Amino acid sequence: MRVEPHLKNFMNPDLVEAGCDEAGRGPLAGPVFAAAVILPKDFYHPLLNDSKKMTEKAREELRPIIEREAIAWAVVEVSAEEIDTINILNASIAGMQRAVRKLSVKPEFLLIDGNKFKPFDDYKYQCVVKGDATYASIAAASVLAKTYRDEYMRKLAKEFPQYGWERNMGYPTKEHVEAIIRHGYTPHHRKSFHLKQLEPTLF
């Protein structure tokens, strides 16, 4: 017997909706990744949830399923350099907008995770606080953004092994902060994320 889904499949039953989310707003290093996903109206998978509540194994298992079964999907990255230039909120919004523009099917409505977005092109949208735990399409976008970003950070960790990015994904762990103090910043660090503001909470 099929279990009833805990995520809603849509806000507007008659519109083609894309869910949008990002991963990597809080790290000291690496890009922010954003994704947009259009799912079939009846999409269901028992593992699908807010990516932060899923295990790494579950996210990796679900990623190819989303990519295969989605009507359209897109993932983009916004570099640390651009984050420093326009700030992390604007970079996150820009990333989601770019992901929408990359979709092979144009959505009629956007579901945005969080409470801030900016109008662009002619898209109608709705911001949804905790949207990745509410709508399946936003949850799917969160899974893609998270898995693509983690994969990217693991590759980056091979170039800069002293920072432990394969474990901390660029977030301000004690290990990461101590590595910055010892070895300095890399070109992949966000210069606008000031280390001194973080030290008291980590030592």
Can you offer a commentary on this structure?
With 203 residues, the chain is an alpha/beta fold. It has one domain (17-202): Ribonuclease H-like superfamily/Ribonuclease H (Nucleotidyltransferase, domain 5, 2-Layer Sandwich). The chain contains seven helices and five strands. The chain has helices at 56-69, 80-86, 88-102, 136-159, 165-168, 174-183, 199-202; strands at 17-23, 32-38, 72-78, 109-113, 124-128. A five-stranded mixed beta sheet has the order 3-2-1-4-5, with helices on both faces. The longest helix is centred in the C-terminal third of the chain and has 24 residues, at 136-159. It is globular, with a radius of gyration of 17 Å. The N and C termini lie far apart (51 Å). 43% of the residues are buried. The mean pLDDT is 93.
